[in-house]
Design brief:
Elements (H helix, E strand, L loop, with lengths): L2 E2 L31 E2 L12 E8 L4 H12 L4 E7 L4 E6 L6 H10 L3 E3 L7 E8 L4 H12 L4 E7 L4 E6 L6 H10 L3 E7 L5 E7 L4 H12 L4 E7 L4 E6 L6 H9 L9 E4 L5 H33 L13 E3 L2 E2 H17 L1 H12 L5 H25 L9 H24 L2 H7 L5 E7 L5 E8 L8 E4 L8 E6 L2 E4 L1 H4 L5 E3 L4 E2 L4 E2 L4 E7 L5 H14 L5 H32 L13 H15 L3 H20 L2 E3 L2 H7 L4 E4 L1 H5 L5 E7 L5 H12 L5 H17 L9 E7 L3 E6 L2 E6 L1 H6 L6 H12 L3 E7 L2 E9 L6 H10 L3 E5 L4 H11 L3 E3 L4 H13 L4 E5 L5 H6 L2 E5 L4 H6 L2 E3 L5 H35 L4 H4 L5 H20 L14
Parallel strand pairs: 27-34, 27-36, 34-35, 36-37, 37-38
Antiparallel strand pairs: 1-2, 2-4, 3-5, 3-6, 4-5, 7-9, 7-10, 8-9, 11-13, 11-14, 12-13, 15-16, 17-18, 17-19, 19-25, 20-23, 20-25, 21-22, 21-24, 26-38, 28-33, 29-30, 30-31, 31-32, 32-33
Helix pairs in contact: 5-6, 7-8, 7-11, 8-10, 8-11, 9-10, 10-11, 10-16, 11-31, 12-17, 14-17, 15-16, 15-17, 16-29, 16-31, 17-29, 17-31, 18-29, 20-21, 29-31
Keywords: ATP-binding, Copper, Copper transport, Ion transport, Membrane, Metal-binding, Nucleotide-binding, Repeat, Translocase, Transmembrane, Transmembrane helix, Transport
Catalytic activity: Cu(+)(in) + ATP + H2O = Cu(+)(out) + ADP + phosphate + H(+)
GO molecular function: ATP binding; ATP hydrolysis activity; copper ion binding; P-type monovalent copper transporter activity
Length: 980
């Protein structure tokens, strides 16, 4: 039978919701669609599996989806087919070596359906770690370089995250060419992941001495079911394997590699864990800047002493004025000697950065620093040579300007990378929650323990039995099969209150077992665990640009050329009038002339206006906010959602599962006909068992209980045909020759089913009690009904009141009847209620509110909420809701608590406020510093900004911005409801 299979996974299946049944899907999937799937029919084929998503017109019901699945499922090379009747979308996994995308399209069209939005190319995604970015213009340059590569469709580069995400056509280009494009642009690049890295393992091999040994192991591994690709590097003694976790796991792969020999030769294999590149590279970058700063200080501090300290300490500094030859003094020669290593060895990175920036026709911080330091250095060299050749020349060198400028810039960069490393602390804490080892239990057929082995967490396979002792962390997502305990799930839910766990309950990797010993059957491992996918989602969010960052991007494109022009104008404004005597000679310091004074002003302008801080203002704040949100139970899908949420003026709530607990209970069942209760229950179960709606599940559960009282529990439920979902109304189908309808009054009216006085009286009584009436129709007549109640969430009233205090209006939008909706609305404090609304009608209501100029947030949890979630400015999905809602939403509230609606909006407001403050810090230094650096105050106060001090100000602006963003780490949610 067809089963619902959504692409993003239900967080309810992962956390805090107890129940029976095994988990089938991961928390999040890469695809952006929803689907109904049939069980996978794995074909023979060793090629890499790819996925393709396209629209299908003409799907009117679930049987149409089944027709498409059947047409494609029989083709060789098709691994799985998922078709969504709701969205009219298909997702097909296939082996390219066995079947082409064109053949897939033709098969769907041959089945009588029209294909739309069929991708012309197969798109893969890879992520790269980028080295050497200094400011926003660097990230833009890399994006331009990547987009110029044939086959690259989309490229996003995150400055703060130092990563790039590239969508490309693998038939046109590959990752090697993409990395080369980044390197040609003057930056370093390392591959973090490619599209098929989700289930990949690397093994370290021993006793591998020749290519023949490599071939033996490769062929043995490729022969295993579930292995899609094998790459052996016999020189490095490593093998990389892509596999299907449903069919095989790392322990089986290790065993196969070790047994690959013919008996005369044995191999040894072990799991290979590459070093954490992000941590190692971050540490290496920090050490590099520290070492460069210390090396610079070794030479710059003496220059500073020789030029600005000792000459003021008579007679201790008099020896610096001793002539070496002609007018060249000891002090000038020492400053030249000590400055040169700083300029050309320590400062080499600025030359390299400038060269690559100018080659790609852009300009960045390196260009400004190189211009400023070279102007000071080469002018000083000119002064020194002139003094060497002249008997009378007296001039002032600026070697200390060049050396001290580089020193302060490196100090600033060192402090900046240290601070930037702390912006991802929240995310790092999440990734460290999983334990390194676990106890693997082997059970006999009677459930007795045969053996207990301590293994690496990375070697756990699906369906393994893991023993978790008191105080230990749960290594993977799974189901408790034995024992009882309390588990602290605060790392996901934010609630420190331990949750009781018994056999059949779900546990999530990274949570802490408080007291009892439990046995857990692993259901999700590796990248499929809830924790791994939360981390992946937050990383993707941190990479995405917020719209507010466009301001910085636009400014940075023209900023550097404008600064260079401003520096030249500053030099001319001071030099020309000084030469012609337009300002008093007394303005010029004794040891300078007009040219030198103008040069210092020009260099100061060049350096103080560097736009580094501008590029860090938004991404650092978004990084901290999304990481902090994840630890608070609020998953924000990118800077766009974060920015939009602060504008929200109206929050629209769904009712069932959102304002209410979403666990409806049937409180009564009545018959309006002579149909036996057993048959009545059978018809209701047959119709509702295929529905995912919470009310449908409650009806099925109650009907089954009733059925045990009236008939045999083991009797087979009749099969329904022509099953059809009527969004917002109910379901219908045929049981034998009988037409069965289960739903609300609207469904009955749409089928022309009359309502007797008895039925109307019952429905009115039920609705007045704020309950939902589910009617059961048979062959055009209502034969009975269920009264369903769904308690309001305890925090709902306080959340609504708090939103009103924030100046945000609230609306309820539900498919339920008016009487129930208005009763619930009155109970929680929502005045504006729209009831009996179909899913597309919900989206229309959202659009109506938007047309009034309101920024609207929609909070929902069900399939019928997904159009409204997509239509709203900000969609917020309750974490325990359906996968469709989670996928369509911009923000996921993991704990299923309404208080996090307030948290999401408040965190957004705080973050946007912080970004604006960051812009003040970033532009404030420039706006205030540039006029002072240009000498505006000098004629009146004698105050000027030496170039080295300008460099310190520039560094301080970047540090101020990052530290400002880090203050978001102290964020505390404004509303916290205590539960009884």
């Amino acid at each position: 039978m067809t089963r619902i299979n959504f692409l993003s996974g239900v967080i309810d299946k992962m956390i805090g919701v107890n129940g029976n049944g095994e988990l089938k899907e991961p928390l999040l999937r890469n695809s952006g669609s929803i689907a109904v799937s049939v069980p996978e029919a794995v074909q023979n084929g060793d090629g890499k599996v790819r996925s393709i998503t396209f629209k299908v017109n003409g799907i009117s019901c679930a049987s149409c989806a089944v027709s498409i699945e059947s047409a494609l499922g029989g083709l060789n090379g098709i691994r799985s087919v998922m078709v969504s009747p709701l969205l009219g979308q298909a997702v097909v996994k296939y082996v390219p070596e066995l079947i082409s995308t064109e053949a897939i399209k033709e098969a769907v069209e041959d089945a009588g359906f029209e294909v739309e939005d069929f991708p012309e190319q197969e798109i893969e995604v890879c992520r790269l770690r980028i080295k050497g970015m200094a400011c926003t213009s660097c990230s833009e340059s890399i994006e331009r370089a990547l987009l110029m590569v044939d086959g690259v469709k989309k490229a996003v580069v995150g400055l703060a995250l130092e990563e790039a995400k590239i969508h490309f056509d693998p038939s046109v280009t590959d990752i090697k060419h993409i990395v080369s494009a980044v390197e040609d642009a003057g930056f370093g690049a390392d591959v973090i992941s490619s599209g098929n890295d989700a289930n990949k393992v690397q093994l370290k091999l021993e006793d591998l001495n020749s290519p023949e040994d490599a071939m033996i192991i490769q062929s043995s591994l490729e022969a295993l079911d579930g292995v899609s690709s094998v790459e052996v590097d016999w020189k490095e003694n490593k093998v990389t394997i892509c596999y299907e976790p449903d069919l095989i796991g790392p322990r089986s792969l290790i065993k196969c590699a070790e047994e690959a020999g013919d008996g005369s030769k044995k191999y040894s294999a072990s799991l290979y864990n590459p070093p954490n590149r992000r941590e190692s590279e971050s540490l290496a970058e920090t050490q590099m800047y520290r070492d460069q700063f210390l090396l610079s200080a070794l030479f710059s501090v003496p220059v500073f002493l020789f030029s600005m300290v000792l000459p003021m300490l008579h007679p201790y500094g008099d020896w610096l004025d001793i002539k070496v030859y002609n007018m060249l003094t000891v002090g000038m020669l020492l400053r030249w000697i000590f400055c040169t290593p700083v300029q050309f060895i320590v400062g080499r990175r600025f030359y390299s950065g400038s060269y690559h920036a100018l080659r790609r026709k852009s300009a960045n911080m390196d260009v400004l620093v190189a211009l400023g330091t070279n102007a000071a250095y080469w002018y000083s060299v000119y002064i020194a040579i002139k003094a060497l050749l002249s008997h009378t020349f007296v001039g002032q060198d600026f070697f200390e300007t060049s050396a001290m400028l580089i020193l302060f810039i490196l100090l600033g960069k060192y402090l900046e990378v240290v601070a930037k490393g702390k912006t991802s602390d929240a995310l790092a804490k999440l990734t460290e929650l999983t334990p390194d080892t676990a106890y693997l239990i082997t059970l006999d057929k009677d459930g007795n323990t045969i053996s207990e082995t301590e293994i690496s967490t990375q070697l756990i396979q699906r369906n393994d039995i893991i023993k978790i002792v008191p105080g230990a962390k749960v290594p993977v997502d799974g189901i408790v099969i034995d024992g009882q305990s309390h588990v602290n799930e605060s790392m996901i839910t934010g609630e420190a209150k331990p949750i009781a766990k018994k056999p059949g309950d779900k546990v999530i990797g990274g949570t802490v077992n408080e007291n009892g010993c439990i046995l857990v059957k692993a259901t999700h491992v590796g990248s499929e665990t809830a924790l791994s996918q939360i981390v992946q989602l937050v990383e993707s969010a941190q990479l995405a640009r917020a719209p507010v960052q466009k301001l910085a991007d636009q400014i940075s494109k023209v900023f550097v050329p404008i600064v260079v022009l401003a520096a030249v104008i500053t030099w001319l404004v001071w030099f020309v009038p000084g030469e012609v005597g337009l300002y008093p000679r007394s303005w010029i310091p004794e040891d300078m002339d007009a040219f030198e004074l103008a040069l210092q002003f020009g260099i100061s302008v060049l350096v103080v206006a560097c736009p580094c801080a501008l590029g860090l203002a938004t991404p650092t704040a978004v990084m901290v906010a999304t990481g902090k949100g994840a630890t608070q139970g609020v998953l924000i899908k990118g800077g766009n959602a974060l920015e939009k949420a602060h504008k929200v003026k109206t929050v629209v709530f769904d009712k069932t599962g959102t304002l209410t607990l979403g666990k409806p209970n049937v409180v009564s069942a009545v018959l309006f006909s002579t149909v036996p209760m057993e048959e009545f229950c059978d018809l209701a179960i047959a119709a509702e068992v295929n529905s995912e709606h919470p009310i449908a599940k409650a009806v099925v559960e109650h009907a089954r209980r009733l059925r045990t009282n009236y008939g045999s529990e083991t009797e087979q439920i009749p099969e329904i045909k022509d099953f059809e979902v009527h969004p917002g109304a109910g379901v219908s189908g045929k049981v034998g020759k009988n037409v069965v309808m289960v739903g609300n009054k609207r469904l009955m009216r749409s089928f022309g089913v009359p309502e007797s006085d008895e039925v109307e009286r019952y429905v009115t009584e039920v609705e007045q009690l704020a309950r939902t009436c589910v009617l059961v129709g048979l062959n055009g007549k209502i034969i009975g009904a269920f009264a369903v109640t769904d308690p309001v969430k305890p925090e709902a009233g306080r959340v609504i009141a708090y939103l009103h205090s924030m100046g945000i209006s609230t609306v309820m939008l539900t498919g339920d009847n008016w009487a129930t909706a208005e009763a619930i609305g009155k109970e929680v404090g929502i005045g504006k209620v729209f009831a009996e609304t179909v899913p597309l009608g919900k989206a229309d209501k959202i659009k109506e509110l938007q047309l009034k100029g309101m920024a609207v947030a929609m909070v929902g949890d069900g399939i019928n909420d997904s159009p409204a979630l997509a239509a709203a400015d900000v969609g917020m999905a309750i974490g325990a809701g359906t996968d469709v809602a989670i996928e369509a939403a911009d923000i996921v509230l993991i704990k299923s608590s309404l208080e996090d609606v307030v948290t999401a909006i408040d965190l957004s407001r705080k973050t946007i406020s912080r970004i604006r403050l960051n812009y003040v810090w970033a532009l404030g230094y420039n706006i205030l510093g540039m006029p002072i650096a240009a000498g505006v105050l000098f004629p009146f106060t004698g105050i000027r900004l030496p170039p080295w001090l300008a460099g310190a100000c520039m560094a301080a602006s970047s540090i101020s911005v990052v530290c400002s963003s880090l203050l978001l780490q102290s964020y505390k949610k404004p509303l916290h409801v205590e539960y009884a």
